[in-house]
Amino acid sequence: MASFPGLCKAVGPAEEENGDQDGSLQQMLKAIADERNRLNIRQEISGLGCFKDDRIVFWTWMFSTYFMEKWAPRQDDMLFYVRRKLSYVSADNTEGKKVEVEVYRRDSKKLPGLGDPDIDWEESVYLNLILQKLDYVVTCAVCTRSDAGDIHIHKKKCQEVFASPSKHAMDSKGEESKMSYPNIFFMIDNFEEVFRQMFLTKDKLDMNTKFTTSCCDRGPGGSDWSSALL
């Protein structure tokens, strides 16, 4: 079994007590970057990839360390697993796999075993990272652009949102959700209440009026890491 001495620095109870989730996230991202570099170097030197078992060891260690341990910094007690099930084999022996997302509580007796070959452990790490380790803020703004190109913001509203691998229908009040993975949605259940000041009447609209929405994730220390204009 492969080991990762340079990466296996546990995030101990002291971090939870100090509320140092930023440190846990930084360690996690560094471990992922180091693993990618290791694979790239191996590919360049030998022209070979990494053994499948070797990769499973790394990604199951990541999943266990940063999401399963009881003292791991977290937002909730849910765990998300990306499962790939064989759905068909074509005439040329090409396998087709159906992707499903399974959700369990951390203390569930039915958790998939670490190393389960049907679980995509790398994608499961990424999915839990996106859903649990990052904070997201959606910003809506009504602005106008002058002839000189300057932008003047008339109204702006920021709202914290949560990432989800499922979505709700926007044209009904039902609570039924559908799995959307690999697409990630950010739900705002009380949209009308939150953004009631953002409504515009026809007499306030002209060719220079813009309605923009962006969603950014917050990195360590509350800094914005990236922003997507919607």
From TrEMBL:
Family annotation (InterPro entries): DUF2045
Domain of life of the source: Eukaryota
Pfam families: DUF2045
Protein name in UniProt: KIAA0930
